[in-house]
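Why does residue order matter? Because the sequence determines the fold. Keep that principle in mind as you read this record.
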Amino acid sequence: DWLYHEFDASAAGSKIHIVSMDAAAEWVDSYQEQVYFEKNVAAAKRGVEVERVFVFSEERFPVAADNPFIFAHRAGNDTGLLGRRVDKSRFAQSAPSAIQDAGEGFIIINDKLVIVDVFSPDGQARGYVTFNEAEVRRYSETFEKFKNLSGPLVFPRALLDRKSQYLALPAVADLVDPHSSSLAVSTAGRRSAKARPGAGSGGRQSK
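Structure:
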């Protein structure tokens, strides 16, 4: 699996930068999302800088704390993940072009490639991979715009008083892949992505 491999192969000191536009298909209660989350945590604990900027509306932000995957990115967490947050409406006023450039979200792997999210009407998360230097540079600049206007992912005290749901998350080994009798993630996993034509890689890749 393309994305899992990139997280597994990232060494200490490397960087994975992500903008999450909080799409409905993200961070749902599924085997694929659990595997993806644990790949994130494992990379962070190895010393990889896994930094994610969440883009929330004002109404959505308090509810986001109920999602254990998102909650695990909060400031002061024990996962090693770096979570930041921007208010979507305010950010759109300050940097409207960045919202457009971000599309439905993206993942930058060590400034060498970008996995771009594309969500289909049926709720499936798909996308493409690009190695194009100009595109990688553009997404890196877009990430910096989000980061510079963001703040740490800090939830109100009332929400922090809840027991961390992250501690209750099941281990991957306890879950069953609905597409396979084994623990191997199928190509229909969290997000399938294919290399963009002319982007430096052929064939279908999986996010």
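The radius of gyration is 16 Å.
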